[in-house]
Each structure stands twice: as C-alpha cells, then as structure tokens.
Amino acid sequence: MRINAPLILALSLVSAAPALAQTAFDGPYIGAVAGAQVHSQNRARTEGTQAFLGLPGTVRPAFQDLDSDDGWHGGAVVGWNASSGKVVYGVEGDFVIGNVKARQSFVGAPIPGLAPQGLTTNVDSRLGNRASLRARLGYAVADKVLLYTTGGLAIGDTRAQAAVLVNGAPTVGWFGEAENTQTGYVVGGGAEFKLNKAVALRAEYLFTDFGKQRVLAQGNAAVRGIAALNGIDYQAAAPFRAGVARVGLTVGF
Hints:
The protein is mostly beta strands and 253 residues long. It has one domain (23-252): Porin (Beta Barrel), CATH 2.40.160.20. 9% of the residues lie in helices and 67% in strands. It contains 3 helices and 12 strands. It is rod-shaped.
C-alpha cells in the first residue's frame, strides 16, 4: 500500500486545528463597524506670510479653535486572532467612510483706510474616508469576553479651506484650499462579547492623529490691485486629531 505523506500531513493538521484554538476568539473574522466622533484636538494655528503675521493681534487671529459637527463614520473590518492561553493577539484592518467637519471664524478690528469694518478670517476642515492597519493584544477574561488594546498605521483623506474677507467689500478677499491623503497613527482599546460561536459584538474607542494640513489663502485680483495689501497672505495649519467611539459586529470562521 502506497503511503501519501502530503495527504497524511494535511489530515493531521485539519484534525489538530480545533485543539490549537485556545479561546473563542481565535481565527479569521470579518464584520462591520459604525461610530461617531466624541472629541477632537482642533486648534488651527495662524502661520505666514510674515506680512500677515505682522498685523496686530486685534486684526488677525493667533489661532482658531474649530467647532466640530461630531461627524459619523461606518465601514468594514477584517482580521485574524491567535492565542497563547488567555492572551489573544492578532492583526486587524478597517476601511470606513464618513465626514468629520469643523469650522471657525474670527472677526478682526477695523483697519482705517483699508478695512473700516474689519476682516473676517475663516478656517474649515474635513476628515473624509479613512483606513487603518493595527495590531491587537487582549486578554480573555471569560470564555466569551475579550478586553483588548490596539494600535497601528492610519491613512485618511483630509481637506482644509481658508479665507479672509474684507467686511463690506465682498469682492476683496483671500481664498485657499488644500486636499491630501495623509498618514498617521491610531491607538485605542475595547471589549468583545461572543453572542454565539461565530458572532461577536464589540465596543471600542480609537484615537487617530493625522497631524496638520496647511492651507494658504492668497489674495484675489482685487487684493493684488491694492498695493498696501499685496503680499499679505493668510496661512493656517488645521489639525486632524480626534477620538471616535464605535460599535461593531464580527463573524468568525
């Protein structure tokens, strides 16, 4: 009788697989998540040009704290877990869609002869679709309950807009927009509960830092035609740092 060594090895691995799974969370899984922003670090600082920075503090802002609209997101996750005793470790990726928007305005003091009603300086930011690839490390505190931490690389679509308007003269202004795909980091943690052998419910918090998006608002033709204003451009550094709380369902295999 001929012995088929590869077949015997494959059958041995299949028969041993259930014994290798030490917790209910071991193995690959896919799922869906949804969440909302719960806080942000949103101070947009005023940068060059030097001519703009040279304006009095009553005329232009040193910074602006953007008001967020507590945006939402939702998407898919896929991952894999293994374990050693009750310690569970693995890797997870996600892709989510949604928008987190923020805005603020500063109304400056009048500038005699140039802007008798003052200047209004605006900053807008938007964080769009994003994704992450993270490591996970947790502990199965019970047969169906897992507590975990997570962290890794994040990537997201960012957009920032800046404008300066001369109050009472709507045709005179500075405008700028910048869009980018930025990378950063994400850290967080959460808990999972197995509803049955395959399905798990989770709740988690993730903090993501994409750094800053710089945007330059340049004067339009009307501004360039005024010698005293030519070369005075506004640049802001809009931050993209925020924490989200989200829930999800996963199905293991």
